[in-house]
Write a structure and sequence with these properties.
Strand order of the largest sheet: 3-2-1-4-5
Number of strands: 5
Radius of gyration: 22 Å
Length: about 450
């Protein structure tokens, strides 16, 4: 008889702590007396419909390094990580042809592509078990009615009533799960061969999030160290006042790169914030960090409920006019050659470092849409390729929101670029740093 396996399909849950899929896979493998195989297909690459690669060099390297870090964590427990450039259906189908796969445990997907991956596995007859994780709340814990056919919440049409309903209900996220204490054996024989390691992009000395250095490095260990260090710093109480800074590394939490890969669980971050407030007291800053975590949660559930509609030209507004697109202007925007100094500086920073402050993400998005006549979906695809902290729900939800095709009750946001520059870069320091020596 072929060797039996229990499989943990690694998705955006690249951690050992607070990981329901990993815990379930370990428990089933021990119960059945079978080895555990941990497998992580790399993110899909290839050209986009807009004419550029789906994975830019910064994000590609971070995704790879995050999996390398996970492999290191697993090896401490006698496990190994296999990763591959095949699609999940191809990789798991090949495994099933060689082994008796008795169970596949995975984080439940939210985006249409993730759901299609799951459907392809089910169509092959693979025993897939999906686990809710990656967010603060499970569907049953939200204070909203649920659709009988899908079990998904009847989500409010904008963020504020979502947050207010949670606050009124006084519901809190569940406690983060500890990492497994007992591990099954790793399978004998060869694991799928890893893809060739991508070259490390040049480290721009101006980067405010230097992801190749230990404080900002990908992976669970760095995530937990950064979480602890940030909450022990004096930055928390003033977070609301500083969060719109354009380049100060201490101005915001910088948790998003690890939340995006799943190296940090949002429930672990929330619990750590609880402990901080118990020791240091509640503050305006700590309250606002929770608001930002809830924004992430809202977009997560919006993606689960709306799915492919968030990728349609008119998003959640089917009666609206479809966006136009100026391809030449979009190319100038990507390259930071629009002639709009603040926008050009932001787009150059993004291309050079894979990072952009939240304020500038909004400003640059607004400029593409309202000054340059670009399609919001093209902008979302460019951010997907470039951002170290890309996650599909926050990226697509934010772009639809700013474009007026999402959940903004004001019907979109058009930023006054001169006002934004005066407010957030009054001395022109940021613009000079990134525009010096460049011509629009």
């Amino acid at each position: 008889m072929r060797q039996g396996l229990v499989l943990w399909w690694v998705r955006r849950d690249q951690r050992l702590h607070d990981n329901p899929a990993l815990r379930a896979a370990c428990a089933e493998a021990r119960q059945r007396g079978l080895p555990l195989l941990c497998l992580a297909p790399l993110p899909p690459d290839g050209p986009t419909r807009w004419g550029f690669a789906r994975l830019g060099p910064h994000r590609r390297w971070v995704e790879w390094q995050s999996l390398q870090a996970l492999d290191g964590q697993l090896r401490r427990h006698g496990q190994r990580l296999g990763w591959t450039t095949l699609t999940p259906a191809q990789a798991l189908g090949e495994l099933a042809a060689r082994h008796r796969v008795v169970a596949v445990h995975a984080q439940q997907g939210l985006a249409p592509e993730e759901k299609a991956e799951e459907a392809a596995l089910v169509a092959q007859g693979l025993p897939l078990h999906r686990h809710e994780s990656g967010g603060l709340f499970e569907a049953a814990a939200l204070p909203f009615a649920r659709a009988p056919d899908t079990g998904l919440p009847a989500l409010p049409c904008s963020f504020t009533p979502f947050r207010q309903a949670l606050e009124r209900s006084q519901r809190q996220p569940g406690s983060p799960l500890p990492e497994p204490q007992s591990w099954p054996p790793s399978p004998a024989g060869e694991l799928p061969l890893p893809a060739l390691q991508p070259p490390c992009p040049p480290v721009d000395p101006r980067s405010s999030h230097p992801y190749t250095t230990p404080p900002c490095a990908p992976g669970e260990a760095a995530a937990l160290q950064h979480l602890e260090a940030y909450l022990a710093s004096p930055a928390v109480p003033v977070y609301k006042k500083t969060r719109d800074a354009l380049s100060d590394p201490q101005a915001s939490t910088r948790w998003s790169p690890w939340l995006a890969t799943g190296a940090l669980s949002p429930r672990r971050a929330w619990a750590a914030l609880d402990a901080h407030e118990a020791a240091q007291g509640r503050s305006e800053g700590s309250d606002w960090i929770r608001v930002e975590l809830l924004w992430r949660e809202y977009f997560r559930w919006l993606m689960a409920v709306e799915g492919a509609r968030l990728y349609h030209p008119t998003g959640l507004k089917p009666g609206a006019a479809a966006p136009g697109h100026d391809a030449a202007a979009f190319e100038r925007w990507c390259q930071g050659r629009t002639g709009l100094p603040l926008v050009d500086a932001g787009m150059r920073e993004l291309a050079a470092t894979g990072w952009l402050s939240n304020r500038l993400r909004q400003v640059c998005a607004s400029a593409l849409l309202h000054e340059l006549g670009g399609d919001w979906r093209a902008g979302a695809a460019w951010y997907e390729a470039q951002l170290l902290d890309f996650d599909p729900q926050s990226n697509q939800g934010n772009w639809a929101y700013i474009a007026g095709y999402g959940t903004d009750p004001r019907g979109g946001r058009h930023f006054d670029l001169d006002w934004q520059a005066r407010q957030h870069d009054p001395q022109g320091t940021y613009r000079a740093r990134w525009n010096e020596g460049h011509q629009p």
